[in-house]
Amino acid sequence: MLPTISRGLHALGIISIMMFLLAPVILVFPISFSADAHVAWPPSAWSTRWYVALLHNEEMVTAFRNSLVIAGCVTALTLVVAMPAAVALTRWKFWGRDALTSLFTAPLLLPSIVLGLAILVIFAGYGLVGSWPGVIIGHLVITLPYALRVLITGLSTMPAFVEDAAGTLGADPWQVFRRITLPLMTPALVASAALAFIVSFDEVVISLFIAGTQLKLLPVSLYHYVESWTDPLVAAVSALLVLGTLGIVLIVERAIGFGKAVSK
Amino acid sequence: MYLEVESLEKRYGHFAPSVSDLSFSLGQGELLGLLGPSGCGKTTTLRMISGLVQATSGKIKVGGQDVTGLPTYRRNMGVMFQSYALFPHMTIAENVAFGLQMRKARHADIAKRVESALAMVHLSGVAERKPRELSGGQQQRVALARALVIEPDILLLDEPLSNLDAKLRDNMRGEIRDIQQRLRMTTVFVTHDQTEAMAICDRIIVMNRGKLEQIGTPHDIYENPATPMVAEFVGRINRLEGQWRNDGAVAVGDSLIRAKDDGGTGRVLIMIRPHRIDLSASDAKSAVSPEENAINGTIRHVTYVGDTFQYEVATTGGLLHVEKATSSATDPFQPGDTVTLRWKTRDTLTFSTEVAG
């Protein structure tokens, strides 16, 4: 009797926590199919009119495309910079290595509003505000520490001595990297790429400071839209974002699950 | 000499050197054991020979050629790691083939050599599996095959048996020795287990605190240890402190003990292996030959461990441990029994402590 009650309470507790966390995310979907002119619950009728409106909203479509391109560039650059850095910070022994690791991952701790302001002050002098390179560099400041963390963890949890073993079998350092290190760090690479993409695509504060008014980015446009409109268009955008993020998470899960299967 | 190591030294920062002043040489086809407690520098030495660690100073020559400055991948040495270090993302066949691919061997050739290497370690039929699908013992065989397939100049084994359970360890030990003999492979074998080293090595180096204590055959190391450290590291041993007398005997407490060496001055450490001492009831008075020591004592403590009784005997010279094989025919001594301990003078090792101090 008692165990049944406690188990029931336990389940109830878990369900309410899940609801608390996920309700807003789930709620976005029905609201996005509302036929009303304002966000209201429950919707008086159902339609896909806000998805159609979204497709015809030129600013949103442009912003969406810009954000995708920026996130893509940021992700690629993040990997190009973070991978050699992670290898150097885990595989080479040099003076001040730990200090450098802390320094490179420190921006994770800074409030992004401080970063945004600092970057704005610097970029204004070089005419980088409102430009594509400006936004990409600004985003890199945020994404690099994330990627570096994930890659360093991935590299330092690699099975012991496999790189040494490859060396004794006649592989030069480049062959060791290509045949051993790179395949074994693939899960970490996929994870950090996904993280960089999501963080860049999602970044509001830095983008608000640097993108200016000329370069439209989705989070910024969405932010401005909500300031002046209350219609369910934002719900439609949100629903698409949730689905997109879910897709990326699933890809990572597959990659890491796959990675675990491959390693010991 | 095939492998020559000359005054090898490794220092990290300002700490005491991990390895210093290490010199030895090794003939073609010889199996050398590097034996010592953990942290004695034996693994560092192995890594210097393989090139994974750069020597601070000294020389390493293989077949007369100086390889000290060569990177690992140019040295052609087969290394077997304690953790096996198999490549988890490759199949067993790919693991074994890796070294051959790096040497740009022909495709058909690689397949054939991988197959015969796996057959040599009795592991045919697992070629397409991944390392994680194999048991520890099987992974170890793969590691051995992978190290041998490249036909290395020297085979280096870093504590290869320490991750296996006891039964498997003895089998694998014998098998490594068999293969080594068959291929006449010059081999360096690192271990902290003296039985393991004694069982299969042609010669053994005992290391302590980065230095060579003694190099010799297993018999030498056991019967004629060069230092007290070696004597205590290879097997159990009693130690007594005494004083040399002018007549060549050693005064230990109230007793006189004659040793292998007869003569010396000052303080001396006496060492006797517990199983080389004979016990008899003390009333059985018999003549003491000049090749024998005999002193009286009282049994303090008896421990039964199946194949032997381990006695602690209080004697006029001090506390001595004695090991006797158990037998169904005779009754063991009991605590309180008075006994006579006899052992050969040639089993009595002496180490002068005057200089060492």
UniProtKB/TrEMBL annotation, chain B:
InterPro entries: AAA+_ATPase (IPR003593), ABC_SmlMolc_Importer (IPR050093), ABC_transporter-like_ATP-bd (IPR003439), ABC_transporter-like_CS (IPR017871), Mo/tungstate-bd_C_term_dom (IPR008995), P-loop_NTPase (IPR027417), Transp-assoc_OB_typ2 (IPR013611). SMART domains: AAA. Coiled coil: none annotated. Residues 3-234 form the ABC transporter domain. The keyword Lyase does not apply. It comes from the Bacteria. Keywords: ATP-binding, Nucleotide-binding, Transport. GO terms for molecular function: ATP binding. PROSITE patterns: ABC_TRANSPORTER_1, ABC_TRANSPORTER_2. PANTHER family: SPERMIDINE/PUTRESCINE IMPORT ATP-BINDING PROTEIN POTA, SPERMIDINE_PUTRESCINE IMPORT ATP-BINDING PROTEIN POTA. Involved in beta-(1-->2)glucan export. Transmembrane domains (TMD) form a pore in the inner membrane and the ATP-binding domain (NBD) is responsible for energy generation. Belongs to the ABC transporter superfamily. This is ABC transporter ATP-binding protein. It comes from Bradyrhizobium iriomotense.
